[in-house]
Amino acid sequence: MVDTPGEQAEDSAAALDDAASTLMDVWSRAHNAADVPVPSAQLRALFVLERGPVNISHLAGTLGALVSSASRLCDRLEAAGLLTRDPGRDRREVTVRLSPEGQALLDRLRLRRRADLTRVLAAMPAPARAALLWGLAEFHDAASRRDGEDGSVSMLV
Q1: 153 DSSP β-pair partners
Q2: Whose CA is closest to 44, among 31, 25, 26, 53?
């Protein structure tokens, strides 16, 4: 039997799903270390804030959360010293941003992730590493292309 392009894509998707699961395990080890003071939902918020200050409504939308939930999450992050609130023109418009401590936490996690990834990549043959990086760059480009005339993007970049 000859594989059709659709079957090849399905087989590739299954292999990618398995590889992505392993990659996420390696990537998340740094986040689950004993010295990380916040759970993953709060880390997600810090990663959003790393891109720049936002209001709580925008943060909630990015996280797929209710504004009230995002506000409580920010309360906890502020109490931990990982973000700061900047009052806006009125009491309803509050901007949140990473504090220096929050940025230091994300920098520390990034270094750990890269060290873990370096160990795995170093165990791979050089041609396999090159093929992986090329393939991931192509995957990123394909996933980042605009889907249609409405300007939607197929994934968050």
Answers
A1: 146
A2: 31
> Following DSSP, what letter does each residue of 68-131 receive, concatenated?
HHHHHHHHHHHHTTSEEEEE-SSTT-EEEEE-HHHHHHHHHHHHHHHHHHHHHHHTS-HHHHHH
Given a contact cutoff of 8 angstroms between Cβ atoms, the answer to whether 33 and 123 are in contact is: no
pTM of the entire predicted model:
0.76
Q: Residue 54's CB: how many other CB atoms inside 10 A?
A: 18
**pLDDT tens-digit series, residues 41-97:** 899 999 999 999 999 999 999 999 999 999 999 999 999 999 999 887 776 788 999
How many angstroms separate the Cα of 126 from the Cα of each of 52, 85, 143?
36, 46, 26
Letter for the amino acid at 153?
A: V
85-90's contacts with Cβ under 8 Å and 24+ in sequence apart are 86/53, 88/55
* Strand-by-strand arrangement of the 54-55 sheet: 54-55, 94-98, 83-87
Report the chain's terminal Cα–Cα distance, integer Å. 39
